[in-house]
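Task: sequence design from structure.
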């Protein structure tokens, strides 16, 4: 498993643990929207919890609502934002 795949699995595990989701990591596709009826169905309270968890676990600070919206579209988006923040 490469670093990106490992990171995506860690993100899925964080989602499940922090938000008490009923899914397993295998049931969450990398491209599944985190918010909305077509995705995991997270809401604004979940967004706040997720923002705190992502900062704590991965060191990703989301500076504003627009940055958070962009980064929290899917597991793929979160992984890309975390990797970008680690680079520099």
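Answer:
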């Amino acid at each position: 498993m490469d670093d990106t795949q490992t990171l995506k699995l860690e993100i899925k595990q964080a989602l499940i643990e922090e938000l008490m989701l009923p899914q397993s990591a295998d049931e969450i596709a990398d491209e599944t929207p985190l918010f909305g009826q077509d995705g995991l169905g997270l809401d604004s309270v979940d967004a706040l919890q997720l923002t705190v968890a992502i900062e704590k676990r991965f060191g990703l600070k989301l500076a504003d609502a627009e940055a958070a919206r962009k980064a929290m579209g899917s597991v793929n988006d979160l992984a890309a934002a975390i990797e970008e923040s680690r680079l520099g």
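Residues 3-87 form a domain with the Non-ribosomal Peptide Synthetase Peptidyl Carrier Protein; Chain A fold (CATH 1.10.1200.10).
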